[in-house]
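S1.2 Input.
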Amino acid sequence: MPYKVDVYISKAYASLTVKDWLSDSPCVDTKTGTKLEKVAVNHPTTFYVLIGHSNGVGGVTVYETVPNVDPVPSDYEIPLELDETGTITFPKPKRVLQSDLDALRRKGKCSATNRGQ
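S1.3 Output.
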């Protein structure tokens, strides 16, 4: 049984492709029937897709499709990278590196502590 995944596109793109990692083929939006290959995204939107998996692990690849430019894919491991609502966001939110936090602490600009220790 495939995973149901909501793919939230957070900004506009002239052309975007969403692929199922297992089959390496474009996904189809289950609500509209649209094949998600080189589709225009005019404003933030959500696509609803089904993702195949092997041994409980699936994947989604999302990338901007620009003529004469090699795509830079964003790969999402499913279910690991789903948020609590079953959604992934493209582009991936930027994350703070531990080395950046350490540098801020050394400069006295960060008072966050590791509460788990």
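S1.4 Remarks. The first strand starts at residue 3 and ends at 9.
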